[in-house]
Automatic annotation (TrEMBL):
Keywords: Cell membrane, Cell projection, Chemotaxis, Cilium, Flagellar rotation, Flagellum, Membrane. Residues 26-45 are annotated as: Disordered. One of its GO terms (biological process) is bacterial-type flagellum-dependent cell motility. GO terms for molecular function: cytoskeletal motor activity. Residues 46-113 form the Flagellar motor switch protein FliN-like C-terminal domain. It comes from Rugamonas rubra. Its main location: membrane. This is Flagellar motor switch protein FliN. It holds the Pfam family FliMN_C. The keyword Membrane applies. Belongs to the FliN/MopA/SpaO family. It is found in: Cell membrane. It comes from the Bacteria.
Length: 124
């Protein structure tokens, strides 16, 4: 019989404790709401940041001995076939492919595709 009372007492204590916990949680003060920071138009700000656009023709892996032998009439074969699109890079990161064109008295690039640049993120 004593076990029943002890069991009944512990159940009652657990119920009281649960009710106190619920009251404490409900009655607890919430932290003051944080005022939202003013929204900045990041795409507009980013438009003024200068970047370096390059057109990578190709590359070649050579030994130091071959490098020392390069002179004014030397030809180094690159890893890109003639006529193949070249890689457009922005600050060293590939963003697409293009081909070389003549623009007035300068060389230019004609964009074939832009796979690595999300233009939607750049417009408001």
């Amino acid at each position: 019989m004593m076990n029943m009372n002890a069991s009944g007492t512990s159940d009652a204590l657990l119920e009281d404790l649960s009710e106190e916990m619920i009251i404490d949680q409900v009655g607890a003060e919430l932290p003051e709401p944080v005022e939202p920071k003013p929204r900045r138009d990041l795409p507009q700000m980013m438009r003024k940041i200068p970047v370096t656009l390059t057109l990578e023709v190709g590359s070649a892996r050579i030994s130091l001995q071959d490098l020392m032998a390069i002179g004014p009439d030397s030809v180094v074969e690159l890893d890109v076939q003639a006529g193949e699109p070249l890689i457009i890079k922005v600050n060293g990161t590939a963003i697409g492919r293009a081909e070389v064109v003549v623009a007035g008295e300068n060389y230019g690039l004609k964009v074939i595709d832009l796979d690595g640049l999300n233009l939607d993120m750049m417009t408001p």
